[in-house]
Amino acid sequence: METLIYLGKVNLYWILLYGCYWLMLRRHTFFHWNRFYLLGSLLIAFALPLVIYPAAAPALPAIYEVNSASFSVSAAYTEEERFITWTNFMLAAYFLGIAVMLVSFFRHTRQLKMFLSRGEKIQLDDCTIILIDSNLVGSFSFLKWVVINRNDYENHFDAILRHEMVHTSQLHSIDILMLEILKVVFWFNPVLLLYKKSMQEVHEFLADSQAPNRETYARFLVAYALNAPIASLTNHFFKPSQIKTRIQMIYKNRTSKWLLSTYILAIALISGTALFIAGCEQTENTELEEAGSKAENNFAAAGEGGSFAGKKIFSVVEEQPEFPGGTEEMYRFLSENIKYPESAAKANVAGRVFLSFVVTETGETKDITVLKGIGYGCDAEAIRVLSKFPKWKPGKQSGQPVNVKYNLPINFQLDDDEKEQSSTNDTFLKLDTKGKIPLVVIDGKIIGKKDASKIIASSDIERVNVFKDKYATDKYGEKGADGVLEITTKKK
């Protein structure tokens, strides 16, 4: 899926880059710059989706949390998969398009090879001239070969050879070959046809600009009449569709060098767009990560707020709620009760369901909410199992039972193994120290702040208490000004 998204962005950037060329640059007489812009646009579009927005500088308050790896339930996919699906249909259509384009490409290549092999060869220092005894094909060039038909050889040899040698010396055929290859792979994107048309126009402008006398050359172009098939992979001397723009460019006054700044403006516009898109993606990813972090945080420490039955709901308490028997028993309960929905398995759907619920002051599980779901019965199955939780040991604040918000992610994943359910019970302690670092106390011993991010394996943790603000300073003085994380380890 990520590959498809990446390729989709590449194609969208091609459209955007070509739009900039069409609106801002195509009328300029900086033909070399236009050529490099078009070539660069085709290549840089592969890099722009990888642009990463710079990390924000402002420090954020520290978040103290015990993260639990999400509970996972997997299903062995035993049913026979249908061959005709939308995915298979789209893949078949895509590869069929590639096959058609390859056939066309090789047909043109074979035709070109035939022209190059059947004519009389004249070897020059800079190119090889191929003289063909036919007027059915117009004169053209490809790489280091210049093909000239009988009529052009007899009547216009010098003008056409001079023109075509510009194509060969500047390797214009390489540009066309690259575009043809991209058209094979990305045949569904019509903007590549526009790229090719514009590239061929620029090639002709470059070759025309080398004419010694533009008045004489313009009259020659107008007088030149040729109705011959045009080879797709070559730089053809004459195309009726280009004659008007070529003559316009011959007579056009040279663009002021001050307008070279237009290219800088185009680059700035594209760069700004890429950064804006990267920034939007970062914002979206950050929001998802924050939602996921909250959902994966068994003991969230983000302050207090909300209400349940007219009473406050805490997410930071002195004594956290506890499932009967501890976290391992909660995972065991989930593994014994949760089932992978058949509809999700058939649709090949997998992902994480983030849930939130309230452990009431009486230990009951209430107000079960899906923070982020995946559908296909997975959300409903998660809610069903959580609603069957036994009574918890309630959380306490100032020695009194209180309502505490608890978040839990359940990971539904398809597996090829025979095992239908599995749970991940290993946990880890995470300190997001973007700002202040809390005071860490393990079994009554204060740990240095520099070592706070690598303090203990979470599998050894029995209980975590979080203190902030006045609660922290009352107990630990100024050392607790940035918050306190009290950890009690399991007794061995």
Taking the alpha carbons of the first and last residues, their distance comes to: 46 Å
Which structural class is indicated by helix and strand composition?
Answer: alpha+beta
Roughly what percent helix? 40-55%
Strand content: 15-25%
Description:
- This protein has 492 residues and is α+β, with helices and mostly antiparallel strands.
- The chain is built from 14 helices and 19 strands.
- It has helices at residues 2-25, 31-44, 86-118, 150-155, 157-169, 172-185, 191-208, 214-223, 243-251, 261-296, 327-337, 342-346, 378-386, 469-476; strands at residues 63-68, 71-76, 120-123, 128-132, 140-142, 145-149, 235-236, 297-299, 304-308, 311-314, 351-359, 365-372, 395-397, 400-415, 427-432, 439-442, 445-447, 461-467, 484-489.
- Strands 2, 9, 10, 11, 12, 13 and 14 form a seven-stranded mixed sheet that branches.
- Helix 7 (191-208) crosses helix 9.
- The two termini are 46 Å apart.
- The model is unreliable at 55-69, 77-81, 225-231, 292-305 and 416-429 (pLDDT under 50).
